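Researcher: Structure prediction, please.
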Amino acid sequence: MIDSKDFEVNFPPSDSVSDMKFSSQADFLAASSWNSQASIDLNVCIYEVQSSGTTVPKVAYTHEAPALCVDWSKDGTKVVSGGADKAGRIFDISTGQSTQIAQHDDTIKCIQYLDQSNIVVTGSWDKTIKYWDTRSYQPVATIQLPERCYSMDSKGSLLVAGTAEKHICVIDLNNPTVIFKQTVSPLRWQTRVIKCYPDSKGYAVGSIEGRAGFQYLEAKDASKNFTFKCHRDDAKNVYAVNDINFHPIYGTFSTCGADGTVSYWDKDTRLRLKSFSKTNGQITSTAFNRNGSIFIYAVGYDWSKGYKHSSVSITNRIFLHAVKEEEIKPRPNKKR
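Model: Predicted structure follows.
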């Protein structure tokens, strides 16, 4: 069950949380949501997480349709977001102003600041990745993808995008305008999430079939590749893996799913370190803060079964979990 000591975020979005990110500079959280009634609610919300665990809503801004992705600039002064209005927006914390910086021909599903401080990359259902210079609000380059972009992540010089039809495109940001390697997901069903390893040597992928896979880029590391089952119950029901996040200190990782559970794992020993659940709702998004001391998870409906299965009984909530070292630290490998 959910840890009774977990803190609940005050004034969460009124619709399902689609994405969450912590600032790398302070304990500020940005959350995007599916809310599409901009006149009633704001669908990108920014919170301050105080040392007591209390959260304080700071500012919010809106898209003209559901917001599906969010990220912070490296210096923590700006937030970028994208959504079903086909627009990418940048919000300046100091001025409180929101400005459009990106435009696609279809929904923007993924957005990220790259390590270069002024470059933002977007992935869209229009089957493209675009790079944007936030100083000029102009596209720097465009990459054509084989299908609609469903998930994307970058770490260091590595950018990985997962698309429809299980395509995975690897891009070396030292040569950012071409696809370095195109492959197919090791999983049998639709890709739900992609996350890069902290050391940029590979990536994790989660799918709608309750399975995750871990892939290394170098051929010499191919023996370390593996897939495993997760987010399945004793009745053999299978649930989507909605998010994967690596701990910034230990490199262990979390998965969350449509079964309403979160698990911490050690990929090197392939052990589950901890698991907890929320019975009324699905876990739609998760994140660790900059030093891994806080883990945040959103409870709501993940839309994996369409609008007909959305229930008014599901309350949209966000919880903060204080991460204990013993539940996230890697376990010794007992194999000899």
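Model: DSSP finds one helix and 28 strands in the chain.
Researcher: Thanks, that helps.
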